[in-house]
Amino acid sequence: MKAKGISILKTAVVAAMSLLVLTACSSNAATKTQETTALKSENNSKSAQADTDLVIPVSDISEKVSFYPVEADGTKMEVLAVKAPDGTIRTAFNTCQVCYDSGRGYYKQDGNELVCQNCGNRFPMSRVEVEAGGCNPWPIFDQNKTVTDESITISSDFLKESKQIFANWKKTY
Q1: Which residues, in sequence order, are bridge partners of residue 115?
Q2: Which class for 158: exposed (0-12), middle (13-18), buried (19 or more C-beta within 10 A)?
């Protein structure tokens, strides 16, 4: 009888320990699953934010103008970046402040100048991001971008605010 009691006691102890181990493991697994899900969600939020900002590596910018396509709320846009003759980096939207509504008010480089594809106005690289108004590229001034030694970031909010100047951009007629 005593042996039977000890056997039942051992079985009960083993069962209790098994239950404790299983509960702890499933709780631990659930916690790990929740942590992984939260981490994935956080990473997706960061990458979604990063995907909407335009980030231009400073190392890519030279005296030859670079064009960076971007989309804001379904509107296709383009930013240009160039190193001016004085060595400063300049940014602007690739659309003319006068001709933007024509559909052909965008620039191509010819030597050390940008040429409006609508009116033919020639605009020197040294004037990019220096003046607003007139037949020249739409400037992106310092208050509308974040500049570090490694990159220039133009926020999605600013891009969305500016999308109306691209409403007819590069439309065919």
Answers
A1: 108, 122
A2: middle
How many of the other CB atoms lie within 10 Å of CB of 137? 29
- Alpha helices, DSSP H, located in 53-162: 156-162
Cα maximum dimension of the chain: 107
| Residue burial 80-101, b: 16+ Cβ < 10 Å; e: rest | bbbbbeeeebbbbbbbbbbbbe
- Alpha-carbon distance of 21 to 131, in angstroms, equals 71
Q: Is 93 helix (H, G, I), strand (E, B) or coil?
A: strand
Handedness of CA 60, 171, 125, 149 (dihedral sign): negative
User: Is pLDDT above 90 for 111?
Assistant: yes
pTM above 0.70, yes or no: no
Task: Say how far apart CA 80 and CA 67 lie, in whole Å.
Answer: 5
Residue type, 48: A
In tens, the pLDDT along 10-37 reads: 544 444 444 433 444 444 444 433 433 3
Closest CA to 92 of 154, 49, 134: 154
